[in-house]
Amino acid sequence: MQHEMVPGVARLRRIVWPILLLLSVPVVLQGCVNRTPMLEQVREEGKLTIVTRNSSTTYYLDPEGQPDGLEYELAEMFADHLGVELEVVVANNLKDIFTMVTRREVDLAAAGLTITNHRKNWVRFSEPIKWVSQQVIYRAGNDKPDSVEDLYDKHIEVVALSSHSEHLRKLHKQHPKLRWVENEQLESEELLDLVKNQLVDYVVVDSTELNINQHLYPELSVGFDLTKPEPIAWAFPHTHDTSLYDEANRFIKMIDDNGVLAQVLERHYSHVEQFDHVGTFTFLEHVAARLPEYEEAFQEAAAQNGLDWLLLAAMGYQESHWRADAVSPTGVRGLMMLTNRTARMLGVSNRRDPLESIDGGARYLRDLYERVPESVKEPDRMWMALASYNIGLGHLRDARKITKRRKGNPDKWVDVKDNLPLLRKRKWYRTTQYGYARGNEAVRYVENIRSYYEILHKHYSEQESPIRIEPLPTIEASAL
Question: Would residue 127 show up in a list of annotated catalytic residues for this protein?
């Protein structure tokens, strides 16, 4: 549901909703008198419960189904610091997050929340974890906004009850012509889709939102910063007892002072090398300069696993540009960019050894291929196996279920790839088993490999044919 923020409604909502939230606070404060301190209670129960939201900047499940995200990683570190387990609750929207905190249904919110004076009425914020600016995003080729005046008479959308809508309300006092829509159904990343598809003129998101997703949205650019850098922090309930809150601040200061916080931020926000869609010439240069060194390894690994070696080589280029020492900000490394967990499962002792990496990547791809349902025929089965290599088999299964629910054919890649991006939309991922995932990245991953594969076919003057998958030869049981 969407609604336009007309000034009268905005004032009413600004007054009523915080009051409704705060009605629960006195009860909470009363209940805390003479109770066990929150920090001691958490340690006695052996768990720290947080509320967060699904997004690439907070919490999500990685391709192997393991939880990841900046807020999750920091919260897990805090739980380890306390000597307890971490329990994660995923909320549907910002209102639910603040409600759960004020009612003490959770210990804290780790959800990428900006500190604002208005929000301080509802919750107590920790020391900042990072700083972000609110940015106006537009599609390149359209009119670039340079000032608030350029936003007049434009279709602008923001996440409902966000710090962005709060700032726009402040600006409205000096700019009465400013209008916007608060979207109660979409998260910031989903709003970027609206600009990309030219359904709206502009959106306002945090600087980290576009930064971490820029490779998915090459068409989008920053018009201007709507604010100066603002702090992002954890949120705690307003209670007399501040023991857990104080310990969290000590923890944040500790990891800031020892450099661990900076390392975690770098891992999640470092720029990832982007695929150049017009870089055919560069690719062919790499075919001549880099591929010969690994050609035999690709051929041998492909033969042992019943794969097409050109496909395996194309996959290797997509993963690392055929660099044995490649390392991503998320910790995957080597020519086939294996995670540490996958490498252990495959028995790969040195991910930077190109021979081990290629062999491990081939075995892992073959294993994923075998686990794609037999009802999926070639070449769709291989495209889905490749998508699983990137996003995880669990997320692929979710996308196939969504495809079926939307009357598509879950055995056809052309239908599944249209539904994979829905894993980033709350309306869809909240109904799945594995939750949020960057499905559009998996689609681009597969399509890039297909392009490289076709170029390699032409380069090696081989007859064009479907991907060749042979029955596995009889070999000793692998680590899989």
Answer: no
